[in-house]
Amino acid sequence: MIDAQTPVKPDKNKITLVIHGGAGTILRKNMTPEKEKAYKEVLNQALQTGYKILQNGGSSLDAVEATIRVMEDSPLFNAGKGSVFTHEGKNEMDAAIMDGSTLKAGAIAGVSVIKNPVSTARKVMENSAHVMLIGRGAEEFAKEQGMEIVDPSYFYTENRYQQLQRAIEEDKIQLDHSKDKGSLDEPLPGDEKKFGTVGAVALDQYGNLAAATSTGGMTNKRWNRVGDAPIIGAGTYANNQTCAVSATGHGEYFIRSVVGYDISALMEYKALSVKNAAEEVVLKKLVQRGGEGGVIALDRNGNFAMPFNSEGMYRGYIKADGKSEVLIYKD
């Protein structure tokens, strides 16, 4: 384990940021040019926000937090402002962040009034003795930490509310825009079906990795269901010795498969590359178990992978030289 205090000669040529905005049935035929442009604009804004921090000598933790906040503030993604509704017509959000240099992590789940869940997750990591806080306790902690608290109505978006109504009519627990049989598979006008969780992984000039994930969970979810995003080792994981991972998909499968840690373990114990490890888990293991979705994974040398077994995944990256790319579809 590299000690957090070990002096490392800064190397700006290493910095890398990779993001995702959800995976699922994302098809060109369901996407209007206007909608595609809107998604790409927010993804690019998120990339540039994190990149600027890394370029200016900021930490990978600072970069992933700021990057996620951009997507949490957009109604296009199932996190923060754009979170989906529970069966009771509420928004329950989850988020996690992890520091690859120390293996410290923070997470929150089932919160309804915290504007930027990822920032509270970081406060849990840095200003508490715990890893995960949930519900009212997490909200009380957020208030004590000076986090921005909003009225639950802030998270209301008409599109998400209509999704809930359709899910209730069909009596289905609906992954955010996920592929399903029946009328739920028909997109709302100008909308496509996806798992809209957002995530970011970063490598800073000091050689430190970090990962963060934020989500609104499943449409029509009940009983305070929590997915993989806030669970360390499942939807979020970072270790300087191996990689940083953020996942998006059918959370139950990602939890059972401990996706983030499994990718790290394949790199550590079998010496697989980040690409081969991520593909082994997402394209083989998850598929065999029936799990749909994808991950972004980044190693300490700046190599990264963005595999997914769904029709598409909102994803993008930016390298040290400023070269960036935002992708949506499989081809």
Report on the architecture of this protein.
This protein is α+β, with helices and mostly antiparallel strands. It has one domain (16-329): 4-Layer Sandwich (Glutamine Phosphoribosylpyrophosphate, subunit 1, domain 1). Helices cover 31% and strands 23% of the residues. It contains eight helices and 14 strands. Helix 3 (117-127) links the parallel strand 3 (105-111) and strand 4. The model is unreliable at 177-193 (pLDDT under 50). It holds the Pfam family Asparaginase_2. One of its GO terms (molecular function) is peptidase activity. Substrate binds at residues 225-228, 248-251.
The percent range for strand residues is: 15-25%
Main sheet makeup: 8 strands, mixed
Count of the separate structural domains: 1
Class by SSE composition: alpha+beta
* Rounded mean pLDDT score: 91
Q: Report Rg.
A: 18 Å
Q: Low-confidence segments, ≥5 residues, pLDDT <50?
A: 177-193
CATH class: Alpha Beta
Looking at the overall shape, the CATH architecture is 4-Layer Sandwich
Look up the CATH topology: Glutamine Phosphoribosylpyrophosphate, subunit 1, domain 1
Order of helices and strands: EHHEEHEHHEEEEEEHHHEEEE
Q: What separation lies between the terminal Cα atoms?
A: 39 Å
As a percent range, the share of helical residues equals: 25-40%
CATH superfamily: (Glycosyl)asparaginase
Helix tally equals 8
Number of DSSP E strands: 14
Lateral arrangement of strands in the main beta sheet? 4-3-2-7-6-1-13-14
What is the 3D shape? Answer: globular
